Amino acid sequence: MLAWRGVRLRRQGLRGTSAGSALAGRLAVFAAGAVFAALPACGEAASEPPAVVDDCPDDLPTELDCPAAAPTYSAVVSRIVSERCGSCHFAGNPFSSQVFVDYDDTYAARRTMLTRVYGCDMPPPDAPQLTPEERGALLKWFVCGAPQN
């Protein structure tokens, strides 16, 4: 398990495989960038680190899962983002630095969203949580390149 600034990431036993190398490379890029910066949850102060969740599932899909069609943005992902993220991530909310209104907003934040959803940092504990199906759809969409379909 990797830990960086309160965000937990798990390795999936893919070391030595091309998918493992790709995943490790993406995680290294994430760690090197500002994508791990703690985003404030709805109503949280920006300086608070994200909570660490002990029972966070280790369910990150691999690129090997991508040959099957990724969930569509228009029919699946946009609904999840609207229902689960829109109550905090809207224009004018002083507690959120990210706004998710359309594909471009979501695509621009895809790395941060992947990190926050996979690390069980989003949605925050006081917000309605993702169902396992919603979580799986979002994670697969992120890992499969966040297609605009």
What this model shows, in words?
It is a single chain. This protein has helices spanning 18-32, 73-85, 103-108, 110-118, 132-143, and strands at 2-4, 7-9. A two-stranded antiparallel sheet has the order 1-2. Mean pLDDT is 74; it is low at 1-41 and 43-52. With 149 residues, it is mainly α. The radius of gyration is 15 Å and the shape is globular. The protein starts with a strand and ends in a 6-residue tail after the last helix.
- The percent of residues in helical segments reads 25-40%
How many domains? 1
Please state how the strands of the largest beta sheet are arranged side by side: 1-2
Provide the structure class: mainly alpha
Strand proportion, as a percent range, falls in under 5%
Give average pLDDT, whole number.
74
Tally of DSSP helical segments: 5
Question: Strand tally, please?
Answer: 2
What is the H-and-E element order?
A: EEHHHHH
Oligomeric state of the chains present here: single chain
Could you give the distance between the termini?
33 Å
Whole-angstrom Rg: 15 Å
What's the layout of helices and strands?
Layout: E1 2-4, E2 7-9, H1 18-32, H2 73-85, H3 103-108, H4 110-118, H5 132-143
Antiparallel strand pairs: 1-2
Helix pairs in contact: 2-5, 4-5
